[in-house]
Amino acid sequence: MAFIGLLTLVLIALPHGLSYSQREILVVLTINILVVSSYRLLTLTGEWSLGHVVMMGVGAYASALYSKEWGVPVPISMIIGALTAGLVAWGLSFPLFRMKGFYFLIGSFAAGEIIRLLWKRFRDPFGGPKGIKRIDPFPDIDLGFIRIDFFDPVNYYYFTLIIVVLCLVILWRIEKSLIGLTFHAVHWQDKLAESAGVNVRDYRTLALVISSTFAGLAGTLLAHYIGTVNPNGFDIEQMVFVLTWAIVGGTTTLYGPIIGCITLTALNEIVLRELGLEQGRPLIYGLILIVSVLFMPKGLEDVVKRGVAWAQLQIVKERTNGV
Amino acid sequence: MQTGLNALFAAAYLSLVAVGLVLIFGVMGVINFAHGELFMLGAYVVVALYTNLQMPFVLVVAIGLIFVGLVGILMEFTMFHPLRDNPLGGLVASIGFLMVIQASITIGFGVRMEHVPPVTQDVIILSEKVRLPVQRLFVILSAFVCLTALWLFLKKTKFGWALRASAQDPEAAMLQGISTRTVSIIAMFIGAALAGVAGSVTAPVISVSPVIGHSVIVSAFIVIIVGGIGSLEGAVLASVTYAFIHTVITTFIDGVIADIVGLSLMLLVLIIKPTGMFGTQDRV
Do the interacting molecules here have an ipTM over 0.90? Predict the structure, then answer.
């Protein structure tokens, strides 16, 4: 409990100690935490997708178009945008879940890339390579005594933080529910699960749809903050970042990918940027990736687990010494 | 006709890259995401030694082959061997390696495009409308030579036998006294060297920049899937097919549609027959 209270305080105080550009990074980081956490839900079933970031893009494009072309109010367009991403994922599940493992990885890449190229090719309605600009921002909230302007990164950070925490709670509940347990079964014992009457394919589809819906929501959060979307923002390079956050962090726990995302983003955006190594940034980032998979194959979460176990051991030792 | 020749040129360098990728996957079971960067590295060997230092082109291509092959061995020692039981780890490490190479080249040469002067300006005029620059012919010929040499190496020599055996069944190969480690190193050298050669000979024809590896790797992935993972013949045949379709559509409609068609083709193959046109066994 004390830990959660402390964490809340830190999260609330965090933006006030940062510069303006770091606050903007903080907003994107919060959104990315949702992306990587929703990605983890899919990996629970044992499938690794390379199309997750494109699903995020589907949400972003959909919400941008709904609000811009049809005049749907932004908060509602965000929700429908996220659902659109889920719907597209459901459609894609039919061809994609004829494949497994490595083939699914490549197949999801192909499917995602096709969607991305369609955005690039069709100027109407997707805006071609330049994408959609001047997307309606999230509306200001006027409570009479206080006006919340969401153009300010600090306010938008609090807003995304609330949404993301809510989503994480939902994701956590899903994982601990019967559905989540079945996801694990589908991953580790798919033949056994099948013979026990579990429709393995339906559960894989469910995981894909849920994770894509949350990715879509993350996309809408991003689109209405930065105000533009374009096909290059959702390319394979972004996907590679999500993949590396998940793998460097580890995917057996809910916090693993989050730690991976925070650590690598902080390293990339703050530490290396402060050092002024603009061109050398990818070099050091790449080296860190190699070193971390070589020496931490179980991810950062394993380091945390061992750290906690060590601390507990110390406490126990101290107490027994005292006795 | 002209489109056909362009397609043949594209097929030539693409098949070199794809065959290398298949070879590495077959023997080591790892997807080398940095393979496009090995191609790029081959092109930059030409920029450094041929454009800047004026060394003879053929010598530079030979150096490109050996240098990139050695980089391949370096990858085997530092990443793929320690991570041999962890395919996803190998993938991520190769992504890390990709970033390292790309950033090093950017620091060394800058992001702008490098123009490599063509070795020869000669053009073979086959008819009124069909012209074949000798430089492109050189790419096609070197692909032909390299692939024939590889084929002979695999089918006729003892090393080739060992290599194919370890690709088929590593444990059985080990029982026969084959050192799978040596085989891995050789496969990695050959696979990387092929990409290096492809980059070196293609450099004067294309504009070289640190990001050229990206489009190459995507095409190579499409080709190895369509051809069937693990099948070298399939990779070559799929390269020709893919290059032809892609060039025709690029010429008559546009490049993005050509990419979409290529990817759809790959998806279709994955749906209908995941083992590809020539794949022998399911590796799921």
Answer: no
Q: How remote is the C-alpha of A92 from its chain's centroid?
A: 20
Inform me whether the pLDDT recorded for A162 exceeds 70: yes
Q: In chain B, what are the domain boundaries?
A: 2-210
- Which chain A residues touch B267 with a CB distance below 8 Å? 95, 107, 110-111, 114
> Which of A293, A294, A300 is best to mutate for the B interface (most B CBs within 10 A)?
A293
- Is the predicted pLDDT of residue A308 greater than 60, yes or no? yes
Q: Inter-chain contact A121–B256, Cβ cutoff 8 Å? A: yes
Max CA pair span of chain A:
76
- Selecting from B99, B259, B274 the residue whose C-beta is nearest the C-beta of A282 gives B99
Kindly give, in sequence order, each residue whose CB lies less than 8 Å from that of residue B11, ignoring residues fewer than 6 positions away.
Answer: B143, B239, B240, B242, B243, B244
Mean pLDDT of A233-237: 85
Residues of A in contact with B263 (CB under 8 A): 110, 113-114, 117
The confidence band for B274, taking pLDDT boundaries of 50, 70 and 90, is low
- Residue B280, pLDDT > 60, answer no
Please state, as a whole number, how many other Cβ atoms lie within 10 Å of the Cβ of residue B102: 23
